[in-house]
Amino acid sequence: MSIDLALILTLLTLVSGVVVAMDILVWKTSEQDERNAPGPKAVLVEYSRSFFPVLIFVLVIRSFIFEPFRIPSGSMKPTLIIGDFIFVKKFSYGLRLPVTETKVIETGEPELGDVVVFRLPSDPKIHYIKRVVGLPGDRVVYERQRLTINGVRMDLAPNGEYFESAPIYLEDLGGRVHEILIHDPGRSKKDGVYVVPDGQYLMMGDNRDKSRDSRYIGMIPEKYLVGEAVRVWMHFIPWSLPEWDRIGTKIE
Fold this sequence. Notes:
- By secondary structure, the chain is of the alpha+beta class.
- The radius of gyration is 23 Å and the shape is elongated.
- The protein folds into 2 domains: 5-65; 71-246, Umud Fragment, subunit A (Ribbon).
- Helix 1 (5-27) packs across helix 3.
- The chain has 4 helices and 16 strands.
């Protein structure tokens, strides 16, 4: 069962805010009243006064500025690995209301090469993280692990290093250079031509041969975007020591 943290946080903030407002405007409970008659209402008011400022602060930060996510799979190796905890910049692609995800302010649009967290269109409670490899209107050809965007072949070259026995390649998406994994050079899964509709984006994982991305789930409409992944703030797997060298890593 998935837990909607945004909904829970919003409801707690709303309830505590209503209690505080009722106390200020109607009940007018004083500290002396709380000491003389510490009933359920006094306890509710006391807890609401204490938690409302914290809850609304967390709600604003999480909804409009930064939200933490944990990387659950290896589809973005070597850029992101299982156990990475990342910050996602929520205001990169517009300010959205919590729970409803309705955009209220335009702030920007994804660029080629951005690493983006989005909600899965078939089940919006599930979050994916992939790289933007096609913008609205682009014609993208994926063949033998090479991307050709609007007739321009993207640079791809081995860097001489390996990650978990797979060679690391450097891919240049219009000036955005990043690492990808290729397990079987010269052969790739789901080769094809992808034309990106208006208002949608083509996403692929950096672990190209082992990523369930737009080649399988389709294009991602703009309304499902959550934000841009920008930093690793912790790496931790239960029963293992944290990898301290990953803390603070910028996501390229």
